[in-house]
């Protein structure tokens, strides 16, 4: 009997815990050349902004050991094109849509939340808080738990009440647990952990920063232990809050690592660039690994790493189960 | 999924050969060979299963053959760790290849005269183009440049397929000394070229564009931008391109290109976000209805 | 002509900028089987504590993509054995000694600073601030710039005045630049950036934390972009303060990356485990790369990434030059 | 640097063979072969130059031969990505190997009777030991266990070199069903063994220790702890071992071991820091002068 892969993100039920991470799969159109995108748990779309945005100048990426550094600057066509063209396309293919929102101020986030959540077929919202906060000298909203909470609160208040809101945080913040708690108090329905980690690469030929603008975000398997640690600590502090884990997911074993740490689903980001069929391969690997572990329901793995050694996988205490 | 889109396959290496300063790898990849059109490229995973190199390496397809159901050949010079690893492959090794990727060169309906200009490894995609043009009865004139004699791509093949073949090197070790665009004007005049196809580094493409413009003929360019995915997902490969509506957009070289109409690429602004590009800092949405939808036509 | 590799860490002149990172080379004894340790810039010793210490239970390490996770818990024999046995051995082999200090309180750091700096032959002190602070609920001294400054101040006051004091910081702190500034105000002669990054790995077989105690420190090439970014930002803010860079140095090109970001020397850590001859190979690679770049003095590379594109490498403005 | 310490070399692979559930790799490594003594191991870099796997894999040396100036053989089963990569090596590939590492088995001066007990791949280091013991005129009795028949190590060689060879499997597919330590008491009695040498997982070593203690004979164990470096740098491989001064210290299995006197290893406390270990939490320095220096004798 093949294992039950269903999982839950708050009130949303998903067929399986393998998602795509924001900004690493567009709205699914490119990946659809490689597999049927209705097969994965959900597509988290690239962060949508109110207006079209050209992003950052090239070079925008550099390879780093087991990872990459990127600074794309949230290039995108704006919410109107997204709602008229991209979202309907995804839904027409049977895809589940988690829509990531990026604003340049609380009011923008609120308007995005209203417009996007009212579009039919949106499964959940993800609030990308790693955006420059114009009222805080351009620091990220994640740098100050109060600022992050203001955004989450605004999104939650303006979004349709039956659309869950996930706050997406970075790992390299003063205190991830405090930030998560602030978001929870602002009525986030869940968390998405983690965004890219700040870093830089220097071109060996020119000895100048490899990415225009200098600093960028590190992603890929290199950051997986950082991401898993963050999920573990936040889940320990807030065991009731569902978590979407991301950061270097490459294999089915990595998905189970995130679930064991406390995530209810895991999103594949950078690895899509390396392996456009990754999501379906990972899905198969998750199934195989569960069968090998003798676990019947993927939900039983959630939080397993917090249970004492030897405790059986599974049981009624597993939060977020289907 | 689709019969036209790219596929991802693990293909056996048929052969690895040295060709001057380049290596030529041929893989057995029927699904890529049958879909391929000149100008498209493949993206190859490097370093093996436990590799620390996460990004695929893009290479223009140099040749496809019907052998073994369909083979694909690409040529490369060793630049860093990825191409170094590739150069050590042996026959029967498996390579994880995605392709064919990108938009191909548009082919003229009529048997016109075509000048093909390639710099360094930028010569690669021009060979399948030359064959396709010849099949349509076009005249082909080749211009191939390189840093030195051993970096001029497939000179012998070029001589065979083309009416004329002009070679240039930076060091004068083969053909004319100087940039490959220098003799372009003369070739256009002598061959009465109707169109120029060019592939190579941005400065070369810009220069080719200037020459073509001076002769009032169209130019098709294939750009080689840094690409982290090759499949349109990562937004790393953007170039400023003017759309049919006159609006500049940052478009992806991998899926919206690598082939563009030369006069559409804002060569002088590559590496910047032009102030008037859609969504540039300070850019303001124009109030016309339906405006946002226009970016469908980008590229 | 082979390039001039000399560099300076404050008042200390070193033959070259390739060091070993604390805790990754003992006091040089094991590496001496593979190369002559007098050839490298300096050996930074494993952090010395006042008393012997047994460290953390096994398993202490796990492999992560391009890195590792470790939690060894500063096992060591204590300062007495260090001064009687280990330090003299290193000096007898012609090695330069940078001694890392770890205390469980300000008083301990101060005593260590006094005892170690008075031993003959110590080139500089490095203050490992990633230690649990008993007067701050066990959080690290790096978590609070004031606490870090108290330690640095105590070490600086108790150490012999001609022995420079380097404050070693982590990258995953609330604000690395603010922390660096606090250390500078407390009269640190330089900084050492960065220590390991907090993280976790989960064993795919047991689905429990792979390292006893759960969280550990991520090191190795995986964290290099994070480390380089940290060095770059701190050097931009405090261009006069010499920096020892560390985090995933594997090749000569990586050393130049750290120097270009603003470090005056780079320390090889985890890569020694992979390649016990790494330091001398890296030294050769640095020399080759400088020759290729046409740079005559390694000091000319320091801070190169901060200069405008096209500016020549070198010139009188390079800080920390020999 | 020294003639006794380990060396790091890139050695050509001579052969890769399948032996039951194991692979046997032989590399040409004269400097390792000439230094090697039974019980030592090598640490092998895996995944190639651009590998994401940073930690060397330790393997006991199974055999050294004088061919080609000196070859070294190790056997392994595929466990994860590292051993999977190793199993795909072909002859003439280069492997980056550090060795010989660790303290060898101490050999008796007199021709005594020795029982050699190996579990799974833990049988490997016992073969060069058996040869060395035979050269000294010792009697060797082998006990080799494994999960199944194909995991019992080199049964044929064992029969050849030893006076008696006893085999056990967990599934009973070969020899006696049950743990390899079960028949140990009987063998000791029948062969009048003077000493036991054991290598394998900790629980097996502990059990072998209990049997040897019951028969009042000494035991030498070779432990297989997780090792991140193998060279003594990283402190990842510590086990609690009682020193000659009666003090327990956390000592490194890679350089202070892997061979220890069985009764010195606190098997029950492996994976913990015993409360009375030197430097354990709450441990207090004793005021005797020179105390700190005693840890020189650790192991
Ligand atoms: C559409 C396209 C077609 C190409 N066709 C060919 C070809 O036919 N023959 C050929 O020799 N080369 C070709 N290139 C360049 C080739 O992709 C690079 O030489 C190769 O990626 C270098 O990899 P590396 O690991 O050896 O170098 P490294 O410098 O170590 O690579 C580091 C990173 O930079 C990227 N990179 C480095 N150089 C280039 C470059 N010139 N262009 C794009 N990305 C680069 C790599 O992909 C990698 O992500 C093409 C590039 C593009 C975009
Ligand atoms: C002194 C010593 C001698 C050994 N001799 C042999 C031998 O002769 N034949 C043999 O088949 N195996 C031997 N082993 C075990 C062998 O080192 C592991 O099977 C191997 O490292 C697994 O690597 P992997 O990448 O395939 O597994 P993975 O599980 O993917 O490895 C992940 C990490 O865990 C470590 N690891 C995993 N399993 C073990 C293990 N059992 N022991 C130590 N570290 C482990 C790896 O080294 C690596 O760092 C020995 C171990 C030690 C310490
Ligand atoms: C090129 C790129 C673009 C990204 N764009 C977004 C984005 O638009 N919104 C967002 O919340 N996260 C974005 N991310 C972060 C990813 O969603 C993900 O959280 C992060 O990369 C870690 O996962 P990974 O290691 O699997 O990539 C982006 C990451 C990359 C590499
Ligand atoms: C096993 C291990 C032990 C370490 N011990 C110390 C230590 O005692 N003191 C210290 O300041 N840093 C210690 N570090 C941190 C390193 O010195 C270094 O700053 C960090 O690992 C990043 O460099 P790397 O990626 O080259 O290892 C240790 C790191 C590792 C992996
Ligand atoms: S290379 Fe990723 S979008 Fe073009
Ligand atoms: S394995 Fe590193 S000290 Fe033993």
TrEMBL record, chains A, C:
It is found in: Cytoplasm. Pathway: Pyrimidine metabolism; UMP biosynthesis via de novo pathway. Keywords: Cytoplasm, Flavoprotein, FMN, Oxidoreductase, Pyrimidine biosynthesis. InterPro entries: Aldolase_TIM, DHO_dehydrogenase, DHOD_1B, Dihydroorotate_DH_1, Dihydroorotate_DH_1_2, Dihydroorotate_DH_cat, Dihydroorotate_DH_CS, Dihydroorotate_DH_I. The keyword Transferase does not apply. Residues 5-290 form the Dihydroorotate dehydrogenase catalytic domain. It is an enzyme of class 1 (oxidoreductase). It comes from the Bacteria. One of its GO terms (molecular function) is dihydroorotate dehydrogenase (NAD+) activity. Binds 1 FMN per subunit. The active site is at residue 131. Substrate binds at residues 46, 128, 195-196. PROSITE patterns: DHODEHASE_2. It catalyses: (S)-dihydroorotate + A = orotate + AH2. FMN binds at residues 46-47, 128, 168, 194, 220, 247-248, 269-270. Its EC number is 1.3.-.-. Its cofactor is FMN. Belongs to the dihydroorotate dehydrogenase family. Type 1 subfamily. Catalyzes the conversion of dihydroorotate to orotate. This is Dihydroorotate dehydrogenase.
TrEMBL record, chains B, D:
Residues 6-107 form the FAD-binding FR-type domain. It holds the Pfam family DHODB_Fe-S_bind. Its cofactor is [2Fe-2S] cluster. InterPro entries: Cyt_c3_hydrogenase_gsu, Dihydroorotate_DH_ele_sf, Dihydroorotate_DH_Fe-S-bd, FAD-bd_FR_type, FNR_nucleotide-bd, PyrK_electron_transfer, Riboflavin_synthase-like_b-brl. It comes from the Bacteria. Keywords: 2Fe-2S, Electron transport, FAD, Flavoprotein, Iron, Iron-sulfur, Metal-binding, Transport. Gene3D superfamilies: Dihydroorotate dehydrogenase, electron transfer subunit (2.10.240.10), Nucleotide-binding domain of ferredoxin-NADP reductase (FNR) module (3.40.50.80), Translation factors (2.40.30.10). The keyword Flavoprotein applies. Belongs to the PyrK family. PANTHER family: DIHYDROOROTATE DEHYDROGENASE B (NAD(+)), ELECTRON TRANSFER SUBUNIT, DIHYDROOROTATE DEHYDROGENASE B (NAD(+)), ELECTRON TRANSFER SUBUNIT-RELATED. This is Dihydroorotate dehydrogenase electron transfer subunit.
């Amino acid at each position: 009997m093949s294992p039950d892969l269903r999982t839950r993100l708050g009130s949303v039920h998903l067929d399986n815990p393998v998602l795509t991470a924001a900004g690493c799969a567009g709205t699914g159109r490119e990946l659809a050349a490689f597999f049927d995108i209705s097969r994965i748990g959900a597509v988290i779309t690239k962060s949508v902004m109110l207006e079209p945005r050209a992003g950052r100048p090239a070079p925008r990426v550099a390879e780093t050991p087991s990872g990459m550094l990127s600074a794309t600057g949230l290039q995108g066509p704006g919410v109107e094109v997204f709602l008229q063209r991209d979202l309907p396309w995804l839904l027409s293919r049977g895809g589940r849509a988690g829509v990531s929102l990026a604003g340049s101020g609380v009011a923008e986030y609120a308007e995005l939340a209203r417009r996007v959540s009212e579009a039919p077929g949106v499964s959940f919202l993800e609030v990308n808080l790693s955006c420059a906060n114009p009222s805080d000298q351009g620091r990220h909203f994640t740098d100050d738990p109060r600022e992050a909470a203001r955004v989450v609160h605004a999104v939650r208040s303006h979004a349709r009440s039956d659309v869950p809101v996930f706050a997406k945080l970075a790992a390299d913040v003063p205190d991830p647990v405090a930030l998560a708690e602030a978001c929870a108090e602002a009525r986030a329905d869940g968390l998405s952990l983690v965004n890219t980690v700040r870093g830089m690469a220097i071109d060996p030929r020119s000895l100048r920063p490899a990415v225009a603008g200098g600093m960028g975000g590190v992603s890929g398997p290199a950051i997986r232990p950082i991401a898993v640690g963050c999920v573990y600590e936040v889940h320990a502090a807030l065991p009731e809050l569902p978590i979407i884990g991301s950061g270097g997911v490459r294999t089915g074993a990595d998905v189970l690592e995130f679930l064991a740490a406390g995530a209810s689903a895991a999103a594949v980001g950078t690895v899509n660039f390396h392996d456009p069929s990754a999501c379906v391969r990972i899905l198969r690997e998750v199934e195989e690994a569960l069968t090998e572990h003798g676990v019947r329901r993927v939900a039983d793995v959630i939080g397993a790493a917090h249970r004492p050694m030897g405790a059986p996988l599974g049981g009624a205490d597993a939060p977020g189960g289907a | 999924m689709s019969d036209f889109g790219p596929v991802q396959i693990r293909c056996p290496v048929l052969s690895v050969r040295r060709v001057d300063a380049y290596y030529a790898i041929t893989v057995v990849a029927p699904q890529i060979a049958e879909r391929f059109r000149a100008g498209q490229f493949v993206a190859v995973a490097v370093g093996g299963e436990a590799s620390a190199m996460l990004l695929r390496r893009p290479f223009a397809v140099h040749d496809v053959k019907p052998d073994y159901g369909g083979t694909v050949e690409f040529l490369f010079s060793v630049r860093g760790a990825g191409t170094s690893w590739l150069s050590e492959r042996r026959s029967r090794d498996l390579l994880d290849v995605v392709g064919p990727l990108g938009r191909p060169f548009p082919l003229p309906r009529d048997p016109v005269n075509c000048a093909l200009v390639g710099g360094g490894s930028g010569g690669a995609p021009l060979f399948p183009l030359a064959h396709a043009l010849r099949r349509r009865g076009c005249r082909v004139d080749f211009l191939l440049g390189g840093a030195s004699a051993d970096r001029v791509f497939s000179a012998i093949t070029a001589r065979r397929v083309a009416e004329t073949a002009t070679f240039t090197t930076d060091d004068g070790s083969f053909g004319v000394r100087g940039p490959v665009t220098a003799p372009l004007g003369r070739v256009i005049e002598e061959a009465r070229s109707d169109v120029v196809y060019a592939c190579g580094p941005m400065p070369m493409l810009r220069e080719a564009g200037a020459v073509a413009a001076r002769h009032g003929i169209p130019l098709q360019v294939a750009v080689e931008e840094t690409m982290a995915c090759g499949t349109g997902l990562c937004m790393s490969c953007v170039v400023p391109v003017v759309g049919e509506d006159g609006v500049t957009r940052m478009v992806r070289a991998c899926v919206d290109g690598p082939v563009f109409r030369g006069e559409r690429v804002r060569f002088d602004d590559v590496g910047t976000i032009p102030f008037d590009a859609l969504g540039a800092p300070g850019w303001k949405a124009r109030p016309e209805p339906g405006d946002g939808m226009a970016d469908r036509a980008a590229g």
